[in-house]
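Action item from last meeting closed. Structure (132 res):
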């Protein structure tokens, strides 16, 4: 892995817009971004690695405040691993409950589809058989 990445490389890698990337910076999810001698922003490899996990957590609806807390724990060092596990476990528990809720809703929707298909089938015009 490279040592530094341009904003464009990072945005493309994670399917982000540059505005979203800057938003994550402003919200404290990434530490102060380095600058190349030319003044252009560049991201360290460890920031890119953290951003991968941040995207995963954000895509599973972890709030920004909780993401910020988690990112600060990561940047604080290995003595925070127990706390990081707690944050991730709490999020996983919430995610598992949400998935169960979605499965319940999926089943309800499928039941309604099945009902409507049955109604349509019962009320469909029948072909008249020809008699000779």
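Sequence:
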């Amino acid at each position: 892995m490279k040592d530094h990445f341009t904003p464009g490389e990072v945005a493309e890698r994670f399917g982000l817009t540059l505005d979203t990337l800057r938003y994550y910076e402003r919200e404290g999810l990434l530490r102060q971004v380095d600058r190349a001698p030319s003044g252009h922003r560049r991201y360290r490899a460890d920031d890119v690695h953290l951003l991968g996990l941040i995207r995963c957590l954000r895509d599973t609806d972890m709030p920004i405040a909780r993401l910020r807390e988690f990112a600060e724990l990561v940047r604080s060092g290995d003595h925070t691993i127990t706390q990081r596990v707690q944050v991730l476990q709490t999020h996983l528990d919430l995610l598992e409950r949400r998935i169960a809720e979605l499965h319940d809703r999926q089943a309800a929707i499928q039941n309604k589809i099945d009902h409507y298909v049955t109604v349509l089938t019962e009320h469909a015009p029948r072909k008249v058989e020809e008699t000779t």
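Note appended to the action item: The CA atoms of residues 12 and 82 lie 32 Å apart.
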